[in-house]
Amino acid sequence: MFESAELGHTIDKETFKAEVPKLREALLEAQYELREKGNFPVVVLISGVDGAGKGETINELYEWMDPRYLSTLAFSAPSDEEAERPFMWRYWRALPPKGRMGIFAGSWYSIPIHRRIDGEIDQAFFDQRIDQFNRFEAMLVNEGALVLKFWFHLSKDGQKTRLKALEKDPRTAWRVTKESWERLKTYDKLQDVASHLLRMTNTPWAPWIVVEGTDDRYRSLTVGKMILDALQKRLADTRDQNYPVAPPIFPKIDALDVLTALDLEQKLSKKDYETRLAKAQGRLAELVRSPEFGKHSLILAFEGADAAGKGGSIRRIAAALDARQYQIVPIAAPTEEERAQPYLWRFWRHIPRNGRATIFDRTWYGRVLVERVEGFCSEADWLRAYAEINDFEHELVADGAIIVKFWLQISKEEQFRRFKEREDIAFKRFKITEEDWRNREKWDEYHQAVCDMVERTSTGAAPWTLVEANDKNFARVKVLETVCARLEAALKDKKRHD
Hints:
By secondary structure, this protein is an alpha/beta fold. It is 50% helix and 12% strand. The protein is elongated and about 85 Å long.
């Protein structure tokens, strides 16, 4: 893939001086149009060999464009906080919002490349990361982002010459470190690893642009013009950027499904409830204080019909936990800041570190539930959300998170009774809104959406637990005992593999 970047491309000084003013003007116009429209972000990845001019090119872009609407993200070794979260967590957090451009200097590709060269990871693990990156970038593009990936290339002799020149100049000598010369020794390995990576991640939605880094003027002008061309084309494209990436939902041919199969008449006496609740809370308190839990995080996801008792179940769980160990995150309509980012961004923000728990009261499943039923997103959005959610949860579990997902189900009659009760009792009136009554009118649509959700997102790593919630005592105990069972199984499995 690097042949065209070893041809000796150059731009003479006069041509460069003539081209730059026109390029700067056009880049600024495109940048301001991007900011004014604010309907997509631009993600620029700058990668490549040492000495190929990555930093110089980024500095040039800052000079040519308005730096107020640019952000550069540079990543070194993960901090303790970052190391206790999934690999992609820190990159998710750094994504630019709609209307802005983010330049990643040292992106999600850097660490896996270096670890593969050093032999710290095998080819199978490296390929797993590659697949993860392809899915992540596809999600960004499906969310509307313009993703531009540049690989700056130098031949082996070219890199050696470049490093010597940089080291000789007092103004640039600081850029050449001992590590730069060490990496020159692994040049051939880098080419093997990078060739494989570029080939596997050169996707239609986010292709690589290989740029020869020998000549500063050629490199900078090439990158600037390619960014401008891509930005202008995208700004002029008024077509819907979304398209379905999942097969449509097929209607069922009988009345049996995961919700109608539930026995909602199950009950628990007050005595049994108090005994089992206390026992389960004690088990949970011990489990989250065990040394083994310090290697994991716990994510509890609560969804359910309105008035099904999510809040009551959450309170019984919280009673067994140290308040310093968990946070409860209630999910409502997204804020302006959250709407400017990919859909899952606001949930990544709250992922707990090891030894901690996060309880989500409503979750990322809103996209395939309320947003689907109420038409708050396009069909393409919620159809592709199933795969994106599965990827999201897979990454969390692979990093040590224990995910327990609950759907609390009540009958339509029981929901009506609880709604009326909330209206009649003063301290419960805040729980009932006009929106709750409106949602009842779409009971069947929500029923179908829940069944589709469970069908497509109940995985081995993060299965759904459906809770029969007509009886609050039964539901609360089932939730607590399920959390304990999942925790025990995960911690036991960890010990077996250690």
